Structure formats: structure tokens, C-alpha cells
Amino acid sequence: MLILECPYCGVHAEETELQAGGEAHLKRFGPGSSDEDFHDYLFMRENPKGVHFERWRHVNGCGKWFHAARCTVTLEVFGTYTAQTGTPPQALLDEISTKRPGWTWREFTDASAPHAGAEDAS
Amino acid sequence: MKRYSAFAVAREALRYHSGWERAWASPEPKRHYDVIIVGAGGHGLATAYYLGKNFGITNVAVIEKGWLGGGNTGRNTTIIRSNYLQDPSAAIYEKARSLYEDISQDLNYNVMFSPRGVIMLAQTEHEVRGYKRTAHANMLQGVTTEWINPQRVKELVPIINLEGPRYPVLGGLWQARGGTARHDAVAWGYARACSAMGMDIIQKCEVTGVRTEAGRVVGVDTTKGAIDCDKLGMVVAGNCSDLSNMAGFRLPVESVALQALVSEPIKPCMDVVVMANTVHGYMSQSDKGEMVIGGGTDGFNNYTQRGSFHHIEETVRALNETFPMVSRLKMLRQWGGIVDVTGDRSPIISSTPVKNCFVNCGWGTGGFKAIPGSGWAMAQLMATGHSYLAEEFTMTRFKEGKFIDESVAAGVAH
């Protein structure tokens, strides 16, 4: 059973207390973006065999969204961090590199940073 | 290959069964093949079989990293039905269902197809409306289904409890010609027929790279060395993202675990397949007497081939209400498979950005029932570049907004 530590309330929550929310650190593309970017934003998700970064919600607990780094092959949890974190903390990335040398994921985009689509829409 | 027949059984009975041959060969890979299929599950083997049977292409290798039919082909709950909502789905699933009807004769291998009938229970008002709509759509598509009332459900399934406090049975979508088949036998039957046509089925051989030249596929690297090919078919489920990354393109799928379980064997008590999508559970009784139960998928990406226990608990809890006798059954085994799910819950049978490389994946939670139709379409696509059955199932349909949306129609049990 998957157990994640909620970075807000500190509870070691097991799966039935949590809801999976899919890939983390997505950059939103909306009006004004290219068809490719919009398509990828809507339909393309990282599906790594190994290290993955995800959004989770402590739904039957404090109710808050947070981020988790996890291995999809062993179900090992590397760590969790708050939803307000734009890119994973360096300490966590270093820890993952120690445990999974040569791991890759897509380039981290800071989801909170403004982008072209948002400017057009405003 | 010697034909299986009643005569052959009698002949072997008289000579201590010394004359049976291996059902398929285990060759070492050759240097070059016209076509390489990655994945010796049902879909991959069916693709190879119809390439040979329908198009005369027999210089084919089917490469498998594990053992034949050891992935989702051997892990599903063996349900066969074609009562889908959208036209392209109905076409390919009905093709598959109709091929299942005489596949044992075609392959000379008993896949134990049992058209015992499938009921999809409606347990909410929304499902009642949804299934009536599906029944109407099926009528237009030429797929024989009917909406039946609760009394008829009770006649077909005497062990059902219609008056569940949370999930009353309000009716059902009945497909009399749906049913089950022996899932392993489907893989074994296709493998035997492929081997007899001179195709090489290479097990325990993992693809580690896809070689391309000028945007065209030229071969694969494997744990048994490099193998060249003119055309490549990727017919894998949970690992399709991994494989497509090797070829340099991405697929709109995510891999999650789907679980099933079986009970201890009991006397015959239910001779149809029942699916209850609201409560995420479906059940049938195998010929051995085990109740075969399937559940819903986990919500997160997973490659471990084992799922979360609480999903099993939820499934059984829900079935307890609809089938009170289940509460006294002991469960024997539980297992998981990794399914590749697309955004619209429909498969991808498509050419790819890499020339001569084709992909057949994304069957998600419902691939077994489609095996013959999927192989038929994939073989046609690979041989001729076009398949009327696969036309709508391209990997570019998301960009074009041409979804084949079965996520609502199919619910969870797909």
C-alpha cells in the first residue's frame, strides 16, 4: 500500500486517504498557444518507467493538494513537497540521483510562471 | 503441424500419447525479417496470424520479452462483448466477436469460446438512460443487443439481489452472443498457427532499442542481438510508452494497474457474464467453477503488475450487495496487469511519425475481447497502409478532436 507524507499536516497518509491527480508541474497552454502545445497540454502525459512526479490530494485529510516524487516500477516514494513549489527541491532531486543514477524526466517547467497564452488571454 | 481432431486423440490414446508435437517452435532470431511484431500477446500474435493468412506475409518474427501470453492476455477476465456506443468501436469489437465464433475451427485449436451472454447492469437512472441509448445505437450498427427489465435479469441470474439498498438493479443491457473464451488458449492457438506458417516466435527476448535511418525504421536491438526488418509493429500494452520513446515519438497513454481475482471453485451458479459498472465490478463463472471477478483501475501510474488492495476490497464489497452469496466465498488468487489507457478510452491502431513503424496499443481495460479484430485491422494496416477498421483509431485523433469517446459508454469495466 502506498503511503505518502502530506507536507501540510505531516500525516503519513495511506492510499485510501489520498486521491491521485496525475502528472505534476504541467505548464498550462490556452488561447494563443500553438496547436502542438495545446494538444500536448491536454493529452500527452509523461508515462515513465521509473521516476515520476505527480500531484496528489490529501482528500480524506486536510484536503490540500501536494506533489510527490515516486518510482513507478518499485512504488518507492522519494519524497513529497507542497503544491506551491514550482520545481522539485534540489535536495530531493539529489536524493533521487543517488538512488536512481541516470534517471530522466521531462524538463521541469515552473507552472506558476507566466506564459504566452496567459498574456493573450488577459 | 499435426491437426488436432477427435481422431488424433483416439490415435494417441492407443500409443501412450507419444505422437504429440510441440505446439510451436522456439527458434533463434534470424538476421532479417520482412515484419517484426513486438509483443507476443493476443494482439501481437493475431496481427502476425492475419498478416500470413490474409496477405501471405510469413517472413515474420514475433518478439516477446517474457513468455507467450504472459502479459494482459493471461491476466484479464476473458469477457467478450461488442455493445459499444460509438460506430468505430462497434465495428471493430463486433468484427472481433464474430471472428471468435469460429476461431477454434480456423486455428484448429479449442479456445473454448462460450457465447453465454453478457448483461451490463443498470443500477442508477443515468445508466438506464445510457444503456437504452447504447441499445438503440447497437440496433443501427447491426450489433444485436437489447434492453431488459429487472425481472428478466432475475431470470437470467437467479443469484442476483435486485433490491440492493444502495444499488438496486433497474435493468440491463443484454448481449446474448457475448460471452467468454479461454484467454491462454487464444494466445496459444494463434502462436501454433503462426509457427505452422513458418513465423518465428522469439520469447525471452527484450527489445532494447529501435533503429531508424532517415525517419524510417530499419530494425530493433534486442537482448538476443540486432534484428533487421522492413516493417515494425509495436503491439504491447503497458510498456508501449517505453517502446515508442525508443523510436523517438510519444504516445498519449498512461499505464496503470488493473486487478482481477478468482474465488474457490463452486458448483455452477451463474451461466452468464454480469458487469456492474457503477460499483466497478464484473463477474463470471469459469468452467472450473471459480467465480472470476474484475475490478477497476488504480488512479496512478504503475508498472508493477500488482495493484492496491483497497480496490479489491471495494469491488468485493460492492458485489456482496448485488450477489449476497459472494460473501461466503473464499478468494483464491488476486493479480494485476498493466494497462495503457488513452484519453478517450479507445485504442490506437495507427501509423506513426516513423515510417514503416506501426503501433497497436491503448486498449486499456478492455483488450481481450478485441484480439481477433485488432489483429485483423493491424495486419491490414501494416500490409496495405490502410484499414477500414482502424481508420478512426489514429494517434492523431486527439489533435483533430475526433475522439472515439467510450469513457462514458464503457464506464470502468471496458
Would you give an account of this structure?
The complex is a heterodimer of chains A (122) and B (414). Chain A has one domain: 2-Layer Sandwich (Folate-binding fold), CATH 3.30.2270. Chain A has three helices and six strands, in the order βββαβββαα. Chain A has helices at 35-43, 90-99, 116-121; strands at residues 3-5, 12-14, 19-23, 51-57, 65-71, 77-82. Chain A has a four-stranded antiparallel beta sheet with strand order 3-4-5-6, covered by helices on one side. A two-stranded antiparallel sheet of chain A has the order 1-2. The longest helix of chain A has 10 residues, at 90-99. The model of chain A is unreliable at 116-122 (pLDDT under 50). Chain B is α/β, with parallel strands linked by helices. In chain B, strands 1, 2, 8, 9, 10, 11, 17 and 18 form an eight-stranded mixed beta sheet that branches. Chain B has an eight-stranded mixed beta sheet with strand order 5-6-4-13-14-15-12-16, sandwiched between helices. In chain B, strands 3-7 form a two-stranded antiparallel ribbon. In chain B, a hairpin with a 4-residue loop joins strand 14 (281-285) and strand 15 (290-301). The longest helix of chain B has 17 residues, at 125-141. Mean pLDDT of chain B is 93; it is low at 409-414. At the A-B interface, strand 3 and helix 1 of A face strand 12 and strand 15 of B.
Brief summary:
With 122 residues, chain A is an alpha+beta fold. In chain A, 20% of the residues lie in helices and 25% in strands.
What is the CATH architecture annotation of chain A? 2-Layer Sandwich
For the record, the count of structural domains of chain A works out to 1
Helix share, percent of chain A: 10-25%
Spell out the helices and strands of chain A N to C. Answer: EEEHEEEHH
Give the arrangement of secondary structure elements.
The complex is a heterodimer of chains A (122) and B (414).
Chain A: E1 3-5, E2 12-14, E3 19-23, H1 35-43, E4 51-57, E5 65-71, E6 77-82, H2 90-99, H3 116-121
Antiparallel strand pairs in A: 1-2, 3-4, 4-5, 5-6
Chain B: H1 6-13, E1 32-38, H2 42-55, E2 60-63, E3 79-80, H3 87-101, H4 103-107, E4 118-122, H5 125-141, E5 146-148, H6 150-156, E6 171-175, E7 179-180, H7 183-196, E8 200-202, E9 207-213, E10 216-222, E11 225-234, H8 240-247, E12 253-265, E13 273-276, E14 281-285, E15 290-301, H9 309-322, E16 331-342, E17 348-351, E18 357-361, H10 371-384, H11 397-400, H12 407-410
Parallel strand pairs in B: 1-2, 1-11, 2-8, 4-13, 11-18
Antiparallel strand pairs in B: 3-7, 4-6, 5-6, 9-10, 10-11, 12-15, 12-16, 13-14, 14-15, 17-18
Helix pairs in contact in B: 2-7, 2-10, 3-10
